[in-house]
Fold each of these.
Amino acid sequence: EAGVAQSPRYKIIEKRQSVAFWCNPISGHATLYWYQQILGQGPKLLIQFQNNGVVDDSQLPKDRFSAERLKGVDSTLKIQPAKLEDSAVYLCASSLEGREVGTGELFFGEGSRLTVL
Amino acid sequence: GESVGLHLPTLSVQEGDNSIINCAYSNSASDYFIWYKQESGKGPQFIIDIRSNMDKRQGQRVTVLLNKTVKHLSLQIAATQPGDSAVYFCAEKAGTYKYIFGTGTRLKVLA
């Protein structure tokens, strides 16, 4: 079974430039997450989708970050304009969330490492 | 507010010894917890989970203990191996489909 695919793996940009990350979740997984992981910290949830609808984007800096999952499968996360503090690994995860608690294992991609100079 | 934290940022263990990684959570209503392992340059990988109606769950070489009274989780790794070197995170289910991760503990296995 193919895992969660992300691209690009690495991106270096200058501040105020824009960048986009792409994620293809595991086939059949309805729930998709974008997490930001700053070096030395745990992943922080940015946004989660259930199919093509947003479930929670309360921690997404909406003045510069946007995300979409138009057909309920692939997703893109965009940052425009980027700031120095956006340097981080952006992790995409998907899950086959069951009705009962205890079936919510997240499957993560390898992440996209962003460096903002 | 909701938070999940870990007591120790780095844990060094001799190869072959047992490791214990701790995690505190603050939301007493949380009913599901997951431990993840993250190796350098990779995404977190599921290790083991536990529901709040359980105190203990065992996997292959790993055991998770849940103490709801003091809102504490621990991950025990038996006979720690070099391949266990990684950062370990606990994650708390904080709402429908929502998971909050702790800061992480780096486990170093000494030869």
Amino acid sequence: KQEVTQIPAALSVPEGENLVLNCSFTDSAIYNLQWFRQDPGKGLTSLLLIQSSQREQTSGRLNASLDKSSGRSTLYIAASQPGDSATYLCAVRPKMNRDDKIIFGKGTRLHILP
Amino acid sequence: EAQVTQNPRYLITVTGKKLTVTCSQNMNHEYMSWYRQDPGLGLRQIYYSMNVEVTDKGDVPEGYKVSRKEKRNFPLILESPSPNQTSLYFCASSPDQSSYNEQFFGPGTRLTVL
């Protein structure tokens, strides 16, 4: 059974620093991995989608990498800003599922200190 | 604007009073699903639908019903809500069954059952 883990559960970083969020998954048989942002009590905003054949995706100050063989992904945030404070979720789409379900990690709650 | 909408956004109700949370997408997506999000448990899939008139159970379907009479709408029905269904609910959609597509999420519905 596919499990997705995000460590740490919470992280505080001074403004301006670069940071890395980690995501690991137990089964490398995936179609893709998606990173989301969630603001308190709000919906999920898709940040980056990495297909299984890709190694990384970039959007602005965000860069996500995927190492399928080791079951790891990282989300790199450059020059962090207070507006980056949110919970970041990663999710994988397993190949063994007959439906279109994606499996979520429990998220990393990020706080950027002004 | 391409989006997934949910109504209501917030709802407080009492045990046993039937309610419906609506979900609509304007992207002509075939696949739609419902998730609930609870502290410490993350997001879990309730029901999903591959296309019109095709629905199936997810991980936590007990106490819920869905219908898919039209492509754009996928309502979530709680026939007799109970306090353990207090949660944050998300509707999601993606273009088709292709597992390479990303999922788009609605803004969420915060439900409290007293």
Amino acid sequence: GAVVSQHPSWVICKSGTSVKIECRSLDFQATTMFWYRQFPKQSLMLMATSNEGSKATYEQGVEKDKFLINHASLTLSTLTVTSAHPEDSSFYICSAPPGLRVGDGYTFGSGTRLTVV
Amino acid sequence: AQTVTQSQPEMSVQEAETVTLSCTYDTSESNYYLFWYKQPPSRQMILVIRQEAYKQQNATENRFSVNFQKAAKSFSLKISDSQLGDTAMYFCAFTLQGGSEKLVFGKGTKLTVNP
């Protein structure tokens, strides 16, 4: 089945630095990638949608300048947390929609646990 | 806007027994998909079962089955013969038909299967 590879799986960074999270679709082309944030014991909250060849669409309340999303190619989408602060510590997950493969459901990356110290 | 409601934050069941997780949703659309996803402690999202709104027949996948009531906008998940490995967060999710639409999640139900 479809696989989305997400890296890194965990990262610790100092306050004020930037962190980049990558999601690659390994055996299919993902023209769209959804980026979610999940706090402990909570649901997934959609942050933004990246589209290959166009600007990302951000959900209301999400800071575009802090969470930079780039869909560089049909197989790579990245989320960069800029000037990270402790409150940005969270679990970030990417997900590719099924397209014509609706029966397969959405494909999720394995997630990135970000800790800002 | 579409919303998904899971009214049971936590549930527990004895191994080998049956448990039902509830989910209701709200939409004005007629063509959509519903999913149940499982998130074990590893936090990897795993598709449990899906249902197309245009299908009247309830979906089943081995020990997992759904009770889809379109008029009532209800989509419950039944787990039969519960196993210890079923312990996880379960999320009900909705998406419009199209294949590239965003998933809308409920808040989740934490299921614990006790030995």
Amino acid sequence: AQTVTQSQPEMSVQEAETVTLSCTYDTSENNYYLFWYKQPPSRQMILVIRQEAYKQQNATENRFSVNFQKAAKSFSLKISDSQLGDTAMYFCAFMRSLTGNTGKLIFGQGTTLQVKP
Amino acid sequence: EPEVTQTPSHQVTQMGQEVILRCVPISNHLYFYWYRQILGQKVEFLVSFYNNEISEKSEIFDDQFSVERPDGSNFTLKIRSTKLEDSAMYFCASKVNPEDRPFFGPGTRLTVL
């Protein structure tokens, strides 16, 4: 069974600085998808970034980028120029990519990020 | 942009009562999901639904839970006899095909007293 581990329960960063959130996962499959979701205090689940395992290039979305290390099964999220609105819980998630898969996500435990002014 | 909607936003119920949580997925989506998040914990998969039947369920999804797509637009989660430990945020999600990223609704906060 696949598992996702986020080893940093809480992190903080000063506004305008850069922070990296860690995520590791365990799977025996070669093709899959990885996601980072942001959950602000409203508890809405907001997609931050998505990575397809067959793509070697790391995904980026504006100030958000990932460092995808397939061999190490590591998928960290880097937030550059942190803003107060980035304060939230961040979840890493895994999704299989196999014929017949149901498309469910498996989430990590989450990292609470606080951006300080 | 189309959205997944969920009602109610907050439901308070007494232990042992039945509750129905409602979701309206995005109209052309075919795959539907329920997830649960106990306060302060991770988001957990409950059930996936495709072609009018359950395609996968977790061990959390026991006989007290059921899902239904009664009219082609709504997707409901019923908890037959609520327990205190069912208190959580329940998220509905949908997608066009299984390889897509899911679109999440805003969640229903269920409080069981």
